[in-house]
Specification:
disordered N terminus, globular, about 220 residues, 15 strands
Length: about 220
């Protein structure tokens, strides 16, 4: 009688990450169209086109690490140039000490008579908010929080975020949590790319992986 065979299962890091994060949410405002961006941060350096404005930005272990730097006297900020309008943005995210992660947009040049950011989704370990930003050229302009919820995002745990923009509507979804929804007329304008910001003390990071962006049809 032959002895039983032994089975050895080997999982790559990307598979392990997918298992840990869980199923990615699907769009609700439309259907995924053309894939505009896919970045898994497998190279040893920050990919071309990811531009740091402030803070610390690095790639290690197949993951993007971002953190604020006190000497900048400004929240950490980085961008990925990518012309967009209606779109769905998916990424894996983990708080590794940082206190805030922000994903948003600027209006494309000529789209609005406005200076500064268009809107953003801000996530902390205790909640998230969709905010339309103020016009920096108008001293009377104020930021408008369109949607807010006290939702827990446990530090040290990966989760998958899906941010949809379709016309004047925005939906933010994380599997297992109630979606955050907002509407404003200026949301529908063209956007020159993705704007990321990270808050916290030196060395307190947000980890980002598996970024995908689709046109939303």
């Amino acid at each position: 009688m032959k002895p039983p065979r032994l089975c050895v299962l080997v999982l790559s890091w990307s598979v392990l990450a997918a298992v840990a994060v869980g199923a990615a949410p699907e769009p609700t405002l439309g259907q995924k169209g053309k894939l505009l961006l896919e970045e898994n941060f497998e190279a040893a350096t920050v990919p071309k086109g990811w531009a740091k404005n402030t803070g610390v930005l690095a790639v290690s272990g197949g993951v993007l690490h971002a953190s604020q730097l006190a000497s900048d006297q400004h929240i950490a900020a980085f961008r990925k140039a990518l012309p967009l309008q209606d779109c769905a943005i998916q990424l894996d995210l983990k708080f590794a000490g940082a206190t805030m992660f922000n994903l948003g947009f600027d209006p494309a040049p000529g789209e609005l008579k406005k200076k500064g950011h268009l809107f953003s989704l801000a996530i902390t370990p205790t909640g998230w908010t969709i905010t339309e930003h103020n016009d920096k050229a108008d001293p009377n302009s104020k930021a408008v929080p369109h949607a807010k919820a006290a939702t827990k995002f446990a530090p040290g745990e990966w989760f998958t975020l899906l941010l949809e923009v379709k016309g004047d509507r925005v939906v933010a979804t994380v599997d297992g949590k109630e979606a955050l929804r907002a509407t404003a007329k200026d949301f529908q304008v063209k956007k020159p790319g993705l704007v990321f910001r990270v808050g916290g003390k030196d060395g307190q990071e947000v980890l980002v992986d598996n970024v995908k962006v689709w046109a939303l049809e």
